[in-house]
């Protein structure tokens, strides 16, 4: 069986060695880089399945690297590492196209669980039936999943692949309350843990694009203590 390939981008030698040893011991094929430029070269050469990407690295920041990769590649998985733990850092990373993030310091078991989940979900998506490329239309919104572009009225909007998948899931279950754990498992392959804000950050950014008043949404509504409901 082909090993899944992980590129670890981290400028702290101790953390880099620790992550490499950990993931090697779990059977992954690992590659490393200590700065943004080296990471780009390794990414182009090795074509990894997943990047574990520290934000604060020399040459090019993790943000810059994520942005550059996402210009032409929406499939390679990106998990960002941040030592700051501030909401703004997470929002920026997710907005640029990261699939998930973890805050330092993190536990070994949690990291491995996240890595397994994100790779499992990608594998399931790759082996599933052909994706739905039909336009997503509701209200004054029209989005083309093939181009990741759309319109809100006369305004052009761009969406990420993750946002398209969220909208497709919501559209299939319009009017239903979707539990957070159901959404996370369907889109990320993550078993819900109370500390994760990944879903909430993606919903917040999506609302900025599709809602007239993001603070008072009419399409994606929060059902407190449960999850979200999509109303066309």
Can you tell me about this structure?
This protein has helices at 13-25, 36-46, 62-70, 87-95, 108-127, 161-172, 180-187, 198-210, and strands spanning 5-9, 29-33, 50-54, 77-82, 100-103, 136-138, 141-144, 149-152, 155-158, 177-179, 220-223, 227-230. The chain has 232 residues and is α/β, with parallel strands linked by helices. The protein folds into two domains: 5-127, Rossmann fold (3-Layer(aba) Sandwich); 136-230, Winged helix-like DNA-binding domain superfamily/Winged helix DNA-binding domain (Arc Repressor Mutant, subunit A). The strands form three sheets. It has a five-stranded parallel β-sheet with strand order 2-1-3-4-5, sandwiched between helices. α3 links the parallel β3 and β4. The longest helix has 20 residues, at 108-127. The model has no long low-confidence stretch (mean pLDDT 86).
Total number of strands: 12
Number of domains: 2
So, CATH architecture of the largest domain? 3-Layer(aba) Sandwich
What name does CATH use for the topology of the largest domain?
Answer: Rossmann fold
Q: What's the main sheet like?
A: 5 strands, parallel
How does the helix and strand content classify structurally? Answer: alpha/beta
User: What portion of residues belong to β-strands?
Assistant: 15-25%
Descriptive tags:
232 residues; alpha/beta; five-stranded parallel β-sheet; Rossmann fold; 8 helices; 2 domains; Arc Repressor Mutant, subunit A
